[in-house]
Write a structure and sequence with these properties.
alpha/beta
């Protein structure tokens, strides 16, 4: 009970804090243009007009006009420039060019698969403030990072940036996906397509995926008040089974091949599996050269390619022409 109350209190505090960061505007104070305020002030100072009548004429509150006239007279007596009306804007730490450089670096780091988290981005901005030798709040020096408000403002001023959850990408995949590799793939693909004029039913995409032997239980109706509700499955930890699939551009598919992490394969492993599917075994559970040749023979038996009807296989960004 106390835990639920604490969670509700935390959520209410977060909502209130979020509203304090960006409070809605309730009045129109400070929205009068500089020209209107300056014209009204000149009418009062030069023409000795009444402040109330001048404020009513220009649609300005007389207290606002009186304060502005006082600041204008003080600036004139001290030989200072005429101040701008309204509230002072928030103090800006970085210039437009400096903030643009930070935003560009964050985007470039994400493009290189080394994106920075919000905490790392705040630390980076603090080091930039020190490097640029700009005046910044003392709290930044204490925490060695900028505040959450500055990061929120950066994201709002740069709509091309957002906080995203990255997908785990291996180094081999990240380094292989580059301009030269992609250009070489499409050059080979266009050469083969122009030579044989493949139809959609003759183009197959081959890929492998991993499935687990542990099924995720669905929600069930259970006795109220029980602390633990279980559902039987084939195993709590299970094992990963590799599946090789081939699907054509027209939607036709070849029965899959299952790769089991075993030394020997038995027919009952694929009992009640998809019609026409086959299975092989390897201690590692990963696809090997001999296992892939087994899948190629399985593919030929179902797709039936020939010299008169060649078939195009797309394998991991590499195109291969298969015919018999």
């Amino acid at each position: 009970m106390f835990v639920i109350i604490d969670l509700i209190f935390v959520e209410l505090c977060e909502l209130e804090f979020a509203g304090m960061r960006n409070p809605p505007r309730k009045t129109n104070r400070g929205t009068t243009s500089h020209e209107t305020m300056l014209t009204a002030a000149k009418s009062v100072i030069a023409d000795n007009a009444s402040i109330r009548s001048t404020a009513k004429l220009h649609g300005v509150h007389y207290s606002t006009l009186r304060r502005y006239i006082k600041s204008v007279k003080a600036a004139r007596d001290n030989n200072r420039p005429v101040p701008a009306p309204g509230y002072k804007s928030n103090r800006i730490v970085f210039s437009d060019d400096q903030e643009k450089a930070i935003a560009t670096y964050l985007a470039m780091a994400s493009d290189l698969y080394y994106g920075m988290s919000p905490i790392e981005s705040r630390v980076l901005a603090y080091h930039c403030a020190v490097k640029f030798d700009v005046k910044h709040p003392e709290q930044w020096d204490q925490s060695q990072s900028v505040g959450d408000d500055w990061l929120s403002g950066l994201l709002s001023r740069n709509p091309q940036l957002s906080i995203r959850t990255p997908e785990a990408t291996s180094l081999a995949r990240a380094t292989s996906f580059n301009r030269s590799t992609v250009a070489a793939f499409f050059d080979k693909l266009s050469t083969v397509m122009n030579r044989y004029s493949f139809q959609p039913s003759d183009i197959y995409n081959v890929d492998e995926t991993g499935i687990t032997t542990v099924q995720k239980p669905t929600k069930v109706i259970s006795r109220k008040g029980m602390k633990q509700v279980g559902a039987l499955t084939s195993g709590e930890r299970g094992s990963l089974v590799t599946v090789e699939l081939a699907v054509s551009a027209s939607g036709n598919s070849v029965p899959p091949m299952f790769m089991f992490p075993r030394v020997r394969f038995h027919d009952h492993f694929i009992h009640d599996g998809p019609v026409g599917s086959i299975g092989v075994a390897h201690p590692s559970g990963w696809m090997t050269d001999s296992s892939f040749l087994t899948f190629i023979r399985h593919f030929i038996r179902h797709a039936k390619p020939s010299c008169e009807r060649p078939v195009l296989l797309l394998l991991d960004n590499h195109s291969s022409h298969l015919s018999i």
